[in-house]
Amino acid sequence: MALIINDDCTCCDACVDPCPNQAITADSPIYVIDAAKCTECVGAFDEPQCVSVCPADCIVPDPNHAESKDELLAKYQMLHS
Fold it and tell me: Which terminus of the chain, N or C, has less C-beta within 10 A?
């Protein structure tokens, strides 16, 4: 399942650099995660790096993009091939 940034985002920029897929970008008024690039860090890390660094705890699962671990891994491999 891809992640989404909710309205509690403070636009602190902490989540951008740790993302191995470059899925997070600045938008107005909050940052956004590209669901086509988000793998919840499956294939790169044991946990989503954006979630672990977010001081506002505003990054949550996106119910509109449910994916299994296998699907997330396949997406990660496609993005990095």
Answer: C
